[in-house]
Amino acid sequence: MKAVAAPQAGLRSIPALLARNATQMGNRPAYREKEFGIWQSWTWAQAQDEIRALALGFLALGLNRGDHVAIVGRNRPAHYWAMVAAQMCGAVPVPLYQDAVATEMAYVLRHSQARFVVCGDQEQVDKIIEAEEGDDTVEQIIYTDKRGMRKYDHSRMNWLSDVQAEGRAAHQRFEDELDARIAELDYDSTCVMLYTSGTTGKPKGVVLSNRNVIETARASSEFDRLQPTEEVLAYLPMAWVGDFIFSVGQAYWTGFCVNCPEGPHTMMTDLREIGPTYFFAPPRVFEGQLTSVMIRMEDAGRLKKWLFDHYMKLARRVGVALTDGKPVGALDRLRYGLGNLLVFGPLKNTLGYSRIRVGYTAGEAIGPEIFDFYRSLGINLKQLYGQTEATVFITQQPDGEVRADTVGVPSPGVEVRIAENGEVFYRSPGTFVEYYQNPESTASTKDAEGWVATGDAGFFEEASGHLRIIDRAKDVGRMADGSMFAPKYVENKLKFYPNILEAVVLGNGRDYCTAFINIDLTAVGNWAERNNIAYASYQELAGHPRVYEMIRSHIEEVNESVAQDPMLSGCQIHRFLVLHKELDADDGEMTRTRKVKRGVIAEKFADLIEGLYDGSDSVYTETEVTYEDGRKGVLKATVRIEDARTLATPAQRMAAE
């Protein structure tokens, strides 16, 4: 069965696509969910029945046109059904980050004026109750998992299955009304409202229309020739635009199956069981998996370790060329085939990547070494560049034109231009409608002609026509000597090392660059165990002299690489420290999508930054932290600061000659 290749009359809303799928491919799987260790499956026809029942139940509870329905919880078919059911009723789904704390939820609930909230479980219900204190906007709370909910006040709470049962029982009363509301939906009706991560301020509600979602889903599906036979794993936050376009937009346009894991703790097992053919992950997922692989190899037997090192050396030399379909000698092909049998194939199977036909990473730049590692295994991993405001896609990498240092060419239907100051602008059918109740920000981001400022600095390569993103425009600066400062470029190189979880490079306007390092507790803890190094906490391990030696060696290797870049060689790291705590979204240091909030870090760790630049060899600091139960505390530490070896830049070498 081939994917639908062009817009069809009447397919101008997500509910319309659902009706088409139920009619044309009703027996094909639409959703799977693993619960209690068992996979359950729903066809498109069954999914339509579940969604209509929920929509009728919403009407019975009084959901009005234009209402906002907040949805918070893990990836589950029922939560995707709630999004589409809300749309059927003429309401607007507003997914929230499930790991958000109550205060973050409170802002979104108040800003969106959500009347209905669909919660995954008791934990999310508790956060909603805490978040709405002093505000009576939320009128109905619907929960998916009823465990622990028996003693709650049910005057405005209902189990989702009961809402569906009520909808089925009341179908004669509400069916005509529901059909009328579905018929009212068109390309300009709001499809979803997604909140930005809030890197530089309060999150903004990005309003996306059916036109934005469906046109983007159609164009991107055709770009990668997606079929109804694809399998995807829905494990990323539902509040993130990437999950919405993959698990709703493209899934409903193309008709492929969305698989929901049992939970974060089973994700890797579920990934292997499903074996997705179409897969997306942000760089941190690929970084984490590579870290796990390297840890296992360090603990492997001598023969296994030798085989891995031997064939990975071959893969690094010819694997990427083979993946791109470029010519490779017969002997190398034979040796690579043997490596695939002994190493690459089993490794891909362990990762759950054996069947991937198209893989993407985005969200932030990925280290070229990490990117090439996966492609050398024969995985068709590509990069895309996008934003919530673009309904994801701005640029994509066509097959055969995949490189680690670019983000591809403009996606179908997307126009991209570079402003005089280097900032990237785009316009497309996916360009968002507005920021909800924020006309000033809308006007400053999107001009009258539809061009959107991305906030990123980049340029097009003349030879290939590919876009290269340097960094966030606001983060790109100049060193005191006038050389370019682009922290993300160096940070991504550092994060290639499994021992480094996060890095923050400083240096704008300074004489030299410095860095904060977060170690990866799993990787470094495993290393410490092998080397008989005892530790009782993250803080103690982070401050160990041998950990500093290891991190220094990584930084000096990165400096050697950075020194070869004529444009960014001034970004070598001269001094560094290993932070006494992990950067955490709960402490406001990162967004929920794990983007570093540089302004917050500069303010919160000002004493450590001063120490990096005044020649100190240690700094005593006290840092407020948030514990898992929400309590606040103070972490006290004396943080060591050490120097790293740097190399002469190309300009310095030329001057010396």
Automatic annotation (TrEMBL):
This is Long-chain acyl-CoA synthetase. GO terms for molecular function: ATP binding; long-chain fatty acid-CoA ligase activity. One of its GO terms (cellular component) is membrane. PANTHER family: AMP-BINDING DOMAIN-CONTAINING PROTEIN-RELATED (PTHR43272:SF33), LONG-CHAIN-FATTY-ACID--COA LIGASE (PTHR43272). Pfam families: AMP-binding, AMP-binding_C_3. Residues 19-436 form the AMP-dependent synthetase/ligase domain. PROSITE patterns: AMP_BINDING (PS00455). It comes from the Bacteria. InterPro entries: AMP-binding_CS (IPR020845), AMP-dep_synth/lig_dom (IPR000873), ANL_N_sf (IPR042099). Keywords: ATP-binding, Nucleotide-binding.
